[in-house]
Amino acid sequence: MRKIRVLLAEKQIAFEFVEDNVWSPETKVPPHNPIGKVPTLILDEGDALYDSRVIAEYLDALPGAQFIPIPIHERVRVRCDEALGDGITDAGVAIFLERKREAARQDPAWIARQSGKVRSGLAALSKALAANPLDARRITLGDIACGCALFWLEFRLPEFRWREDPVLDAWARTLEARASFSSTRPPTS
What we know:
The chain has helices at about 1-10, 50-60, 70-100, 110-130, 140-155, 165-175, 180; strands at about 40, 50. The protein has two domains: about 1-60, Glutaredoxin, CATH 3.40.30.10; about 70-180, Up-down Bundle (Glutathione S-transferase Yfyf (Class Pi), Chain A, domain 2), CATH 1.20.1050.10. It is built from seven helices and two strands, in the order H-E-E-H-H-H-H-H-H. The protein is mainly α. About 25% of the residues are buried. A hairpin with a 5-residue loop joins strand 1 and strand 2 (about 50).
């Protein structure tokens, strides 16, 4: 969800952010998104878009800066980076949700498998960034997705301690300096 908020901020598109707990019986999401997930973007005309990749594709096509390049080899690279960030986040969310179950019902093997995905994803990101550092003037949707993944881990699963990797830490500090990331930071409490 933050990925879309960052993209909206980068493109300077005004929007109304509505926080909704999709686990609550009072959620307002299902009439707009049949799978009941966020993010869901409701357009001015009333149509709804859902899934962050679909919403990002739509937003990128709007006037303003582009975060998904047109040339196919660059586009595919950015979409792979986006998939890496989304995959790290998905594995982290799986851990977070599994830990919400009562202790006797938690599956340590499942948590270990998802933890391995997070660690592998972080190592791949660090390696890629070491070979090709972020251009602070021009970020892509892949940078946004990976940055959001790191900051989500730091907020919800700090035991991954990715800041100990100097490549990831330096890259994250560059992203944190951007208004789009600082304005979408989750509350500390």
